[in-house]
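Students often ask why we bother encoding 3D structure as a string. The short answer is that it lets us treat folding as translation between two languages. Here is a chain of 190 residues written in the first language.
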Amino acid sequence: MSTEKLFQVLSAFHPLPADFQEALKNELQLVTYPKGHYLVQAQSPAHHVYFLEKGFSVAYQYQRNKRVVTDFWQPGEIILAPKRFFGQLPTNEIIQVTTDSELLSISYDSVLKLFEKYPVANFLARDITADYYAKSEERIVDLHTLDAWERYEKLLKMYPGIDLLVSQELIASYLNITPQSLSRLKAEHN
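And here it is in the second language, the structure alphabet:
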């Protein structure tokens, strides 16, 4: 199991002492899941944090019988639902892989063990959570200030090739438009 990419991502948040790297490596598991596998089910806490090595993932929930997409993850990103993981609280959010995927996984109990022994683990959790919320806040502002085409272009820049990894329905939901509106926008701009 290679942890090089994960350690590069984590080092961007906070320097990683060698002893912490070794301890973290000992707590990680490499897991592979087929397309459609649920990493987190509705109404259950998140028992793991993941680092996506290969594949693609989506977060969504159902509101008024409509699927509402809230996030996407691509290789090199940490899949985390902070409230569900750190608070061990159930919510309506579902996290699912949309392609065959390879991930590094760490359990809630393992994270707690690292928190107790390594102060850097606490700093990382704080910084990763802050980054997650900053991205969420940016998306909220985008929904209010960018038109649908601008949101689509931004999505394509953030996730190159997303059209090949998820359905147009999921993309449209993330953009807060209907699939028909997305088709019209694409036809108008091509």
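Translate back mentally: The mean pLDDT is 94. Keep this in mind for the problem set.
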